[in-house]
Amino acid sequence: MRIVLTGVAGFLGSHLAERLLQEGHQVLGLDNFLTGSRANVAALQAYPGFTFVQHDVEDPWPDLGPVDAVLHFASPASPNPRSPFGYPNLPIRTMRTNAWGTYHGLEMARAHAARFMLASTSEIYGDPEVHPQREDYWGHVNPVGERAVYDEAKRFAEAMTMAYHRRHGLDVRIVRIFNTYGPRMRMDDGRVIPNFIVQALRREPLTIYGQGEQTRSFCYVDDLIEGIVRLLFLEAAPFPVNLGNPQEYTILALARLVNELTGNPAGLRFEPAMYRQGDPKRRQPDITRARHLLGWEPTVALPEGLQRTIADFRQRLARGD
Amino acid sequence: MRIVLTGVAGFLGSHLAERLLQEGHQVLGLDNFLTGSRANVAALQAYPGFTFVQHDVEDPWPDLGPVDAVLHFASPASPNPRSPFGYPNLPIRTMRTNAWGTYHGLEMARAHAARFMLASTSEIYGDPEVHPQREDYWGHVNPVGERAVYDEAKRFAEAMTMAYHRRHGLDVRIVRIFNTYGPRMRMDDGRVIPNFIVQALRREPLTIYGQGEQTRSFCYVDDLIEGIVRLLFLEAAPFPVNLGNPQEYTILALARLVNELTGNPAGLRFEPAMYRQGDPKRRQPDITRARHLLGWEPTVALPEGLQRTIADFRQRLARGD
């Protein structure tokens, strides 16, 4: 298949591109390097089936010839307001990447009767009032809150994707991605796993805000990509599908595990909980639908996934990336 | 003030334009006549301060010179899937009018350091789980449901409006408009008050789906416009404000009132409730914020407002509009 993939320079985009290229597909990767990495694209250039197009998906897309599938994975994705790569610092661009980018992708898919896949997110559930979250939960999002620039933009993108399906019979896929981690994550976008690994490798104490009792679930990237590929190549699935790891860890347990795996003797440092508007207390996928539909579930446990991620971070730090 | 107003050919847009023109403002009215009426624009041409620009707000806006305020009131607004003017039949255009239109309006306001007002809607509350709805209620919307093309687009527009306020310090207003009725409503967009009045004036029985026990609240258009104007000219109000009439009526009581006011002897006709996905069972504004902030509350009771609306419909039907 000839596949257009936006956000190809990003963490998930680059892993997905590699997997598709390894399976023999042609990948036309789009990115503007707003939050993605040139190193990720450089690595993909080794595959003859790969073509890179530097383009901002907010703007009308260039003609890329006939395509079989359009996968929209471009978007800033870190909620951290202290990172220049977090969407709180890229509010308008985040909204346009998701709304304009989805529209252009849908129009391209429609023009070529191609399949369209939207990378959506657990953020569409907002600060959920039910646990775990199933796909038919409508979510709990503040439309005028700080995080709305991401949450509402992804909800808009889902709504538009379904509108093209209903109106134009487009073959669509919506994957709601929960927290994912692994090699190639940005070290500096303020998310907890990169933060902890970088601190641990620098032999600094890991910073925990509050008591560290809030829980998170983390999916290893290879597991996630496996689920995405299965969903992409399924006969039909015009509805959202959660992909994530239901196993919950407290932030405290995660920090101890990172220190253990890196042999970091510096321990933990507790700081007062910073109030972050809309920061969900808990989020955990119900993956019943993915289990039944795709026969999928995560296979990489956190200690194993963290070890591989730590090895990657160690290499990149040594190279000075 | 020199005011840009989108959706000027629509029901609310034309009333708002008239009020602003009567107060001596200049109004640059935009519309593409997708759901608006040429007769509404023709009536406004009597005011020397009025300029009409036929334009689709989804597309980049023409240079309109210096402006003091941008008011975005364009959008299909009827949820009725049986009407060609309902947003279920204009899904992509509805989404683009609200997202692209809001963006272009915000950019114009930003370029001129002008005030921006978004016409939002009670639909952002979806099928609410609390009654009445206050502005801090986050709503209950299905992001992949049939009505999402409107609900999620308006939520996106609110989020983007707040992002421009937070990011660029833009002076913004968000009015969440509940059901409104009055002269100049489309007779054919499938909403309950026009449906009933047209049937009554034709001496047909009024069609009630189900038992008619679902409740609605209806605000007369002059009341709504008064609230909008007060909000527009307030010193600052960068948060949503509900405007609507909290008085609830059952559909059955409304139908009987219309028959009484029109002297329609044909009575009622009960049909099986049509399942309409996402149709809210109940929605009622909490207008405490508008009361405190604007000293506003509705003053026109339903029988009085209906009489004026019936008189307008009678004239238009006689003219063959």
Short précis:
The structure is a homodimer of 321-residue chains. Chain A is α/β, with parallel strands linked by helices and 321 residues long. In chain A, helix 5 crosses helix 9 and helix 7 packs across helix 9.
If you had to describe this structure to a student in words, what would you say it looks like?
Two copies of one chain form a homodimer. The two termini of chain A are 33 Å apart. Helices cover 37% and strands 17% of the residues of chain A. Chain A has 321 residues and is of the alpha/beta class. The longest helix of chain A is centred in the N-terminal third of the chain and has 21 residues, at 91-111. Chain A has a domain at 2-181 and 219-245 and 285-299: Rossmann fold (3-Layer(aba) Sandwich), CATH 3.40.50.
